[in-house]
Amino acid sequence: MPKLLTNFCTLILICQITLLASANPLEEAPQKNLAKKRLKILVYSPTIGWSHMQFMGSIADTLVGAGHDVHIFRVSMNKRAEALPKEVFNVTNFHNFVPNFVQTGKFDINQMDNFKEPFDGKSFNTFLFQTNIIEQFAEQFDVVLAELYNQCPMALFHRIGVKTKLGTLAVPLYQTVVRPFGIPTLSSYVTSLFTPMNGGHKMNFVERFVNFVNDLYDWLYLNNLMASYEKPVIVEAFGQNFPPLKQIMRNVSLLFTNSNQFFEMPRPISNKIINIGGIVEMKVKELEPEIKAIVDNSLDGTVIVSFGTFADINSMKSEMKLAFLEAFARFPNYAFIWKVELSDEDAKVFAKYKNVHPVKWMDQKSLLMHPKMRAFVSHCGLNSVSEAVQFGVPVLAIPLLADQLYNAIMARVKGIAVQLDVGQLNVEGAEQLLVDGLDKVLNDPSYRQNVKLLKQKFASTPFGAKEKLIRWVEFAAEFPDLNELNLPWEEELGTLAYYSVDIILCIAAILGIFAWILFKLAKFLARKYLVSVGKGGQKTKMN
């Protein structure tokens, strides 16, 4: 784990880099432009996964729809995601960079640790020394929006002179990102994004203990580990006088998250955090004739099965695939549309199950909005779960990696999902686990009722995601320094003052002195009493 986080800073800068100019506008984007000028905006988008690309592309499209000149600066990381249909934005200009990432771009569903492979430690260094990139972008942009999968790009954007630096997150908030803004993480109820506790924000004693130890480890060790790795690289690239990355991050004007306040676990935030969950609004299309026929001919409804772009289903164990197929076969009146690329051998196996329909690609959003959609078997990427909420479809959650477990727990806590552990699907009894989970999602009305209520809250949330994005970006362009929105942080107040240790010690000292005085007084009064009792006894004897 420490080795992973030591190299975490380099993840974003390992492959081919592309520049995307002038993203396509969305018809629905608000047109009111509050800025005094047409802004030139750079959107930094690492291709971590299709959902991340959707989120950043929707941000770019929304800003173009508001009349701004938008360019996307892309770091190529996931070839599988890039091969998918680009419905949100189109690449118009490519700039190659030396790739160091895993070339297959595949994720083995049975080996979750593949996602944690360390990366080439020279990549960030190499990237910072690309003078052609610095010269090309220098002082050209009014605003940059960068997905903070890693904080290092902010050093480059500071170097090229972008005054308004804005962060984005395609996943829920987590400690590394919010710490520079002074936002505290309370171990009593804020569970970690990447090692979440099963109880969510209502953890039992053991979970709170583990969560506390994780946060303590992060605070005492990992907090300084990244800085110790980044500092020499940045100093070598930009010189001794270049400001610390921690300070650059603190000066980020705003952070836009792919969250909605009604579909998130409780945690402290600040006014620098702007929720724009739901901004990904691809146009809903007519279903393809083949897919439409499957849905229309299903007797009791249809179930979507999709594990996202990271999962390579071909590497799933045959026993697990068979468990899924046998479980689906026990619901013969439902049609199961499974997004999966099959080998010839697997295609023969799938052909035996008449209510299971494998497809290489599907318009997930258009399917979810269909009135015959009954459930969604999902890996619980944030976009997928948000889409399920927006269309009122309950979820059978099978998280695989990264933030997906957190999202699955959140969906279960909200009462819209049944959660299964992918590890349990590799052992005997997996079929029955899937059957039980599907039976609950399909036949327990509480899941559909809960998701419909969330759907209504999503739809009725005051101020739309697009309006908030446009207004706040234009505001930040006019007023780049928004540090009054920061909360005080530990380095500013000092550890003793930040955690009120000095106050606690002072109160403890006062209470201790007061207790000592009471003890001395009690001792004095007791002695007086004993003396008086002793004298009284002597007088009685004499009489």
From TrEMBL:
Enzyme kind, highest EC tier: transferase
Keyword field: Glycosyltransferase, Membrane, Signal, Transferase, Transmembrane, Transmembrane helix
Endpoints of the signal sequence: 1-23
UniProt cross-references to SUPFAM superfamilies, sorted A to Z: UDP-Glycosyltransferase/glycogen phosphorylase
Catalytic activity: glucuronate acceptor + UDP-alpha-D-glucuronate = acceptor beta-D-glucuronoside + UDP + H(+)
Xref: CDD domains: GT1_Gtf-like
PANTHER family reported in the protein's UniProt record: EG:EG0003.4 PROTEIN-RELATED, FI06409P-RELATED
A single MF term (Gene Ontology): glucuronosyltransferase activity
Pfam families, sorted: UDPGT
Family the UniProt entry places it in: Belongs to the UDP-glycosyltransferase family.
Annotated protein name in UniProt: glucuronosyltransferase
Keyword Cell membrane appears in the UniProt entry: no
InterPro entries in UniProt: UDP-glycosyltransferase (IPR050271), UDP_glucos_trans (IPR002213), UDP_glycos_trans_CS (IPR035595)
Protein EC: 2.4.1.17
TM region(s), chain numbering: 496-519
